[in-house]
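Figure 2 data, in text form.
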Amino acid sequence: MRLGLHGLTTRGRSFVAAGGAAVVCAVLFGQRDLLRVGVLVLVLPLLCAVVVARTRFRLSSSRRLEPARLAVGSDAKVVLRLENVSRLPTGVLLAEDRIPYLLGTRPRFVLERVEPRGTREVEYPVHCEVRGRYPIGPLSIRLTDPFGMCELERAFASRDVLVVTPVVQPLPWVALGGEWAGSGESRSRSLAAAGEDDVATREYRQGDDLRRVHWRSTARHGELMVRREEQPWESRAVLLLDTRAGAHRGDGPTSSFEAAVSVAASVGVHLGRGGFSVDLVTDTGARLGGAGGDDPGGSQDDQLLDALAVLEPSYGSSLRPAARTLRHAGDGLTVAVLAALTPEEAEDLVRVRHGAGAAVAVLLDVDTWRSPSDVAARAQQPVDLDGPTAVLRGAGWRVVPLRIGEPLAQVWPFAGHGGSAFAAGVRR
């Protein structure tokens, strides 16, 4: 009864107040007809509260996201399925799914009577222009009586997550080098089998030939160990992303930071589909997604996109924290997505990287992303691209310049072995 009284609507409370006032006036003035009307008006919302509070039907809910991962600016569909698992029919149900405001207004549905063991499916679209991970749910159900006197809300516990990833642009295949399959000349390969720590043996697996059992290692480890005979080769690439807030310009989704994240996603997915094992590292030295990620589940592309979906700008002022990862790149491929860069920072970047592998720098012309509302950017001096470009190219790096509104696929041929010839053709 207490739960039902808390669920009284404005109409129900007004009826209670009016009925109570009519009863008091009827008693004071001795009006029996008014007393009957007052009792009726007073008792009706109370009866409705009792009926709604004692509703015993049970509901189950499930949610399906189509798709569960989408790019910025795309649309997704959320399908809700509600099932009445009790033997009693329901009344009118008001359903509301909780979603972040960036995905739109909260969807509300009115469901008519649901028969016993019956189901209802409703769907609604979502659209987002900002990348991130967005919780969907929980679904809440409002139970009400036919007169609208009482309304109780019950929520399900299940939630789902919609991942909005950066936009991935398809890139043309060019000869980068460092790949074991394709048109590259540098055959940089790393040994990969059951694990990088495994030297000559590994644990026995179901289906292994017993003739490969290494008995000395088996006695030492206390479990069956087999010789590792087949050692496939694997291409490796290091993808560096400059996330320094001070090196970027612009605000919100149209900033150079968001453009850099999109470039990193496009390059990472492009390399992953080309057979590379990609290690994504930021200027802070943090390794995200890809082959260096902590989550072993899912594909490399999914891990990389999930990591980039929640990436935020850093407050670092140097690229040196990422030097350790670049130093271990060896003869593998290195791709750096860079923002505002000084010649000294370019020299540091060149100095920390060793090996003969190919190196590509996607250099953003951040001045083209300057926003009139960005006061800090207006106070800063224009960024000089010629100095760092000359330093990088002098060290053998291939520089891919990128301006606002310019498709990455249009300038990506600069990263190939024929980048110089392509640049000459562009100048002509």
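Caption note: The longest helix spans residues 32-53.
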